[in-house]
Amino acid sequence: MPAPEPAPPLTLVVMGVSGVGKTSVAHALVARTGWTFQEGDDLHPEANRAKMAAGHPLDDADRRPWLRRVADWIGAQEAAHHGAVVTCSALKRAYRDVLRDGHPSVRFVHLVADEDVLASRVTNRRGHYMPPSLLRSQLDTLEPLGADEPGVRVETHGDPEAVAGRALAALEVAGRPVTGRS
Questions:
Q1: What is the pLDDT of residues 85-96, one digit of tens each?
Q2: How is domain 13-18+30-173 classified at the CATH fold level?
Q3: In degrees to the nearest 10, what's the CA dihedral of 174, 97, 137, 37?
């Protein structure tokens, strides 16, 4: 009898609104796991970046090609049998459905913080194309991770390394070991 195929490595989609710490926590996750990393914002078409920089929120039609790019990247990592970490706001369940459609490796790490903390973070960061004025539209759009969606909700108090540790521990409790290198 042939040995069973090993489970594919995981893909952690670090999600949440602007200013929640997606990139910082993703880097801490990569440092702990050694997995491949992709900054989801880098996959936005230039038109999306320009629209946000002008203070206009993206709509579903704007997000569709971006989400397809993120999903394609996830598929490429799965095909290569790489553990992976990608940042993506993934604000709506429908967006998360695009990311996990046909991708059994996906687990969401939904980062959350109080609105006043988020406002302070986005107001004080420099060099980001998304202005603080769009935070409210993201909070209004956000559909929290559902109990039937694969992943965990993690508060972002503390440094990114502590948040990453809590995320990995919660994912292990959710039934799939994630420590070590793939």
A1: 999 999 999 999
A2: Rossmann fold (3.40.50)
A3: 70
